[in-house]
């Protein structure tokens, strides 16, 4: 296995550790209010712990071909239906059990502050059509941002939806939960889910519900209220319809720890963002520094096309890619 670990740095001392196995961010160190460097992402101390035979995990990974769920593991393109792996009940989740988070990426180039990885997913890979060539570029900027840019091309009509699956804990201590972390989301609507986590097909208003993060609030404030969507998800595990409409110069979300003073803004060209509050972590996974990752010990902010978009046909969220076109996506996590 040709796995390598790369450490990026900027002029302010922020650093990121990234492996070409799954394009995973394995560490992200940012200064707290006292200038102490804190690692704000969950993960493992050894590469072996990221392997699927050890842990089936998405910690810090590039997700593809299709992030999130596809109903009944099926997609239909130009009248032809493709059967994909069903690894989440009847659904295909994060590209299936052999998704890109478990693949070895090629190293295209590396410098002190930038890493470029590439990967070729062959026609029929996990049931998806088309040979897809993808490139992921990580850049650590001097304004303390990790800028992630994705590109992909195909030789046959297919679907694509890439994201990064980092688990953030801005307390810098994974033995604590993130219920005190303050979250803001610039979104008036979200996509409600049914009992098996597939969207119902509607864009519902957040107004008057626990899904409203337009005004900053602690993640834990409403997470255990008697609201059907939170009961289904065991907490937040939903897609928000971003008001930023693909404008990556405007922050779509902000996360802040009142303990460390670390704040993170999210910028993206994507129409949606999945917020997942680590509801299925249960202490069985032992991570960095021997810490057992408990429920809600992290939050994921996964920028994306909406879940099940190829089957829902939302005009705001076109996940189809055809020959002659290039999929481009950008997400930036900027720390303050």
Description:
This protein has 336 residues and is mostly beta strands. It has one domain: Beta-galactosidase, Chain A, domain 5. The protein has two helices and 26 strands. The protein has a nine-stranded antiparallel β-sheet, with no helix packed on it. A hairpin with a 4-residue loop joins strand 2 and strand 3. The longest helix is centred in the C-terminal third of the chain and has 6 residues. The mean pLDDT is 97.
Keywords:
3% helix; 336 residues; single chain; 9-stranded antiparallel β-sheet
How is this structure best summarized?
The protein has 336 residues and is an all-beta fold. The chain has two helices and 26 strands. Strand 12 and strand 13 form a beta hairpin.
List the helices and strands and how they pair.
Blueprint: E1 5-9, E2 15-19, E3 24-31, E4 37-39, E5 62-63, E6 69-70, E7 74-77, E8 80-83, E9 92-93, E10 106-110, E11 114-121, E12 132-140, E13 145-154, E14 158-159, E15 163-164, E16 182-185, E17 187-191, E18 204-205, E19 217-218, H1 228-233, E20 237-242, E21 253-256, E22 263-268, E23 272-276, E24 300-304, H2 309-312, E25 320-321, E26 327-335
Antiparallel strand pairs: 1-2, 2-3, 3-4, 5-15, 6-9, 7-8, 10-11, 11-12, 12-13, 13-26, 14-25, 16-19, 16-21, 17-18, 17-20, 20-23, 21-22, 22-26, 23-24
């Amino acid at each position: 296995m040709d796995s390598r670990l790369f450490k990026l740095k900027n002029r302010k001392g922020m650093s990121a550790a990234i492996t070409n196995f799954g394009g995973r961010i394995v560490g992200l160190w940012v200064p707290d209010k006292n200038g102490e460097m804190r690692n704000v992402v969950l993960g493992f101390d050894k590469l072996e712990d990221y392997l699927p035979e050890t842990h089936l995990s998405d910690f810090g990974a590039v997700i593809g071909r299709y992030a999130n769920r596809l109903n009944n593991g099926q997609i239909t393109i130009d009248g032809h239906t493709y059967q994909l792996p069903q690894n989440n009940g009847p659904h295909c989740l994060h590209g299936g059990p052999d998704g890109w988070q478990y693949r070895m990426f090629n190293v295209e180039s590396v410098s002190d502050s930038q890493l470029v990885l590439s990967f070729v997913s062959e026609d029929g890979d996990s049931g998806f059509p088309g040979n897809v060539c993808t490139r992921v570029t990580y850049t650590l900027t001097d304004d303390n941002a990790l800028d992630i840019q994705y590109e992909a091309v195909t030789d046959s009509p297919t679907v694509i939806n890439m994201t990064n699956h980092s688990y953030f804990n801005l307390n810098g201590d994974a033995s604590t939960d993130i219920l005190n972390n303050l979250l803001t989301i610039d979104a008036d609507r979200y996509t409600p889910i049914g009992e098996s986590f597939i969207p119902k097909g509607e864009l519902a208003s957040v107004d008057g519900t626990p899904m409203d993060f337009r005004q900053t609030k602690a993640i834990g404030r409403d997470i255990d209220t008697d609201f059907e969507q939170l009961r289904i998800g065991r907490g937040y595990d939903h897609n928000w319809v971003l008001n930023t409409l693909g404008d990556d110069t405007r922050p779509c979300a902000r996360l802040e720890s009142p303990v460390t003073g670390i704040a993170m803004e999210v910028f993206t060209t994507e129409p949606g963002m999945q917020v997942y509050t680590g509801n299925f972590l249960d202490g069985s996974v032992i991570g960095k520094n021997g810490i057992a990752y408990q429920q809600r010990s992290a939050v994921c902010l996964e920028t994306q096309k909406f879940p099940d978009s190829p089957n829902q046909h939302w005009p705001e969220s076109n996940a189809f890619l055809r020959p002659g076109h290039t999929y481009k996506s950008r997400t930036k996590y900027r720390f303050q």
